[in-house]
Amino acid sequence: MGWQDWLVTAVAALAAAIVLWRTLGSWKDSKPGSPTAPACDGCAVAELAKDKTSKS
């Protein structure tokens, strides 16, 4: 295996690690109630709950 093969393997491994890190980070940030969660995280469920309680 030549040095080019090792270089390509290292770059691919680094890219895979970055993708995994960012994916896990976005899952953590998207938890409801997280400070970095999108403002409308769970809006549809919250609206349904409001509608059902107000009609009862």
Q: Radius of gyration from the CA trace?
A: 21 Å
**Tally of helical runs:** 2
Instruction: State the separation between the terminal residues, measured CA to CA.
Output: 71 Å
The strand count comes to 0
C-alpha geometry: rod-shaped
Q: Please state the structural category.
A: mainly alpha
Proportion of strand residues = under 5%
Write the H/E string, N to C.
HH
Q: Runs with pLDDT <50, length 5+?
A: none
Q: What value does the average pLDDT take?
A: 77
Biggest sheet statistics: none
Summarize the structure.
This protein has helices spanning 3-29, 43-55.
Can you give a write-up of this model?
There is one protein chain. By secondary structure, the protein is mostly helical. Helix content is 71%, strand content 0%. The protein is built from two helices and no strands. It has helices at 3-29, 43-55. The longest helix has 27 residues, at 3-29.
Q: What key attributes describe this structure?
A:
single chain; 56 residues; mainly alpha; 71% helix; rod-shaped
List the SSEs and their pairings:
Elements lengths: L2 H27 L13 H13 L1
